[in-house]
Amino acid sequence: MANSSSPGCVLLAATMALGVVLLASPAESARAFFVFGDSLVDNGNNNYLMSTARADSPPYGIDYPTHQATGRFSNGLNIPDIISEHLGAEPTLPYLSPELHGEKLLVGANFASAGVGILNDTGIQFIEMVRMSRQLQYFHEYQGKLRAVVGASQATQIVSRALVLITLGGNDFVNNYFFMPFSLRSLQFSLPNYVRYLISEYKKILVRLYDMGARRVLVTGTGPLGCAPAQLARSRGGECDAGLMRAAELFNPQLSRALQELNARYGSGTFIAANTFRIHFDFISDPAAYGFQTATEACCGQGPHNGIGLCTALSNVCTDRDQYVFWDAYHPTERANRIIVSQFMTGSLDYISPLNLGTALHIDAALMD
C-alpha cells in the first residue's frame, strides 16, 4: 500500500449541525487545513520526488474535476479534498508544489507522502518520500513562510485555529512488518510489542504537532488492512489476511487510548479519534447497504480481485466507479471516501470521539466569531 483551498472562512449558522459555509478571501480566512501522513491523504507531493509510490499518470484522476492524474491515489477526490469541501475551501496544495506561495499559504498545506509510516524505515522500497520527520520539518518551514506573509502574530493564530488531519499506521504493517517473511521488524518484535512500539512513536509525532501549534487534530486509525484487494488476491479462497487484521485490531484501540491520554494532558477534543476500521468494515461487510456492488474487487488493477500490481494504463478499469469500494488494490474510490468523511462529520461516538468533526467545526466557528 503506497499509503496514497482557495482560502476559506467557515461561518456556521447556529441552528444547523454542520452550518452554512461561506467563502472568504485569503486575507479573511479563519481556518487553514494541514494534512500529514501517507498515500490515503497525499495530494501529490510524490510527484516531485524520485519515488515509485506515485499516482501521477492515468487512469488515476479519471473522475477528478480536470480528469487528469494529480498524484492522488483515487479515481477522483480523496479524503482531504472532501474535508476541504466541508470547510468551504479548495483543496490544500502539496507542500512541494511551486504554486504554494503568497496568499495560498493561508489556505494551509498538504505534507503527506505516499509510502510513509510512523517509523522512518517503513516503505524504504519506494526509494524517496517525505518521511514524518521531514513532514514536520516542512511544517516548521511553512510557518516561517507564513510569518513572512502575514506577520508572527497572525501566523500563530492561523496555525492554532487550523484543522489538522493525520493518517498513519497502515504502511508500518503492510510495507514493513508484514512486507516479507522474516522482516527485520518481525524478527525484532512480536506483533503486540511492535504495536506498542508504533504507538509510543506515534505519540511523539502528535506531541510534536501540538508543540508546533496544532490545537484541533483529526487522527485516523487503520482500516481493515487484511481485506484490501491486494491481500485478498494473495490469500487462499479470497479471505482477509488474518495477520493484518490482527494488527489493525491491536493498533486501533491502543491508538484510541493514546489519544485519550493526550487529551487529558492538552484538553478534550484536541485530538479527535476516527474509527476508520469500523467505518471501512461497515461497507466491506455489507456493500449493498451503501449502494456498492463489490467491496472485494478493485476497480483498477489486474489478476484476482484486480489486486495484483499497480493501477496503470494497461490495467482493467471498471466503467462505474461508484459501484466499487476500492479504486485500486488499497485505496478507496471517491464515493467510498465521501462515506468515510460523512462519518467524520456526523458520526456517533462509535465512529469518532470525543466529538465528531461537524460538532468541532461548529464549536470552533462560534469561538472565532
UniProtKB/TrEMBL annotation:
GO biological process annotation, one example: lipid catabolic process
UniProt-listed SUPFAM superfamilies: SGNH hydrolase (SSF52266)
Keyword list, A-Z: Hydrolase, Lipid degradation, Lipid metabolism, Signal
GO molecular function, one term: hydrolase activity, acting on ester bonds
Record's keyword annotation contains Secreted: no
Similarity-based family: Belongs to the 'GDSL' lipolytic enzyme family.
Designated name of the protein: GDSL esterase/lipase
Lineage of the species this protein comes from: Eukaryota, Viridiplantae, Streptophyta, Embryophyta, Tracheophyta
Primary gene name: LOC123184381
